[in-house]
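Shipment paperwork, digital attachment
Item: protein structure file
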Amino acid sequence: MQDSVRKAVIPAAGLGTRFLPATKSIPKEMLPLVDKPIIQYGVEEIVGSGIPEVVIVTGRGKSPMEDHFDVSFELEHVLRTRQKTELLALAEHAAHLARISYVRQKEARGLGHAVLCAKQLVGHEPFAVLLPDDVVQADEPCLKQLLNVYEQHHACVLALMEVPQDRISAYGVVAGEALGNGLYRITDLVEKPKAADAPSNLAIIGRYILTPEIFASLEQTGPGAIGEIQLTDGIRHLLRTQPVYGLRFEGTRYDAGDKLGFLQANIAFALRRPEFAGPLKEFLRGLELGA
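Attachment content:
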């Protein structure tokens, strides 16, 4: 078995109904955070973490994502002819970020099923999973933080963050033994528990390092009550035979799959850009004064 993590899976087949009507014709992963589509931040995090290959799980209507990460001869020719060198570099950057493969998820049958769709392209080796809706601002990429743990323990590692009690039912939640420095040995996982039943306030967000045995676990757990195969259930099954760790990562996560989170992410990322920070702060102060 290949021991280093060389591949990352991005599940991106969802319908994006929370962003209708915009997502009627545009994949939600292509909605812009400042001036880049959401999914490009995920691919850049993968590459910045040292992983060279990306598998994107797509669905019907997702061809704009494939076009974005492909060479655009006509556009690049026009920009080159007009000597728009900065814009040309931006257009070329996306096409040369990583080695990207695609596989279709023909039915929306849960996150676990989406991961299973990538089985043949991943093979029998450890791999990362990154959910593009979860955008993380961090000095060290969130995925790289997980890889650092994997390199020590050679076991599954999940990204964790503390969540308020009134929001806990929207997440997969872990129980675990604290090992120090934000690291936990996970003992159980519960998908979207009621607040009163949650084993902790530590929720799983969309970054995972998984061992290849997860595929067999997902196949054995099968679909739940609503016909979906949940990744959380597969990891819980895996706990029977191997350790699983969780890391309370350093950084700020934004839920760009939610309208409010998407707006917050746009503001936060724009404020980190020198060309926007000053004017945007001035604009926001003006809104506050007018409130």
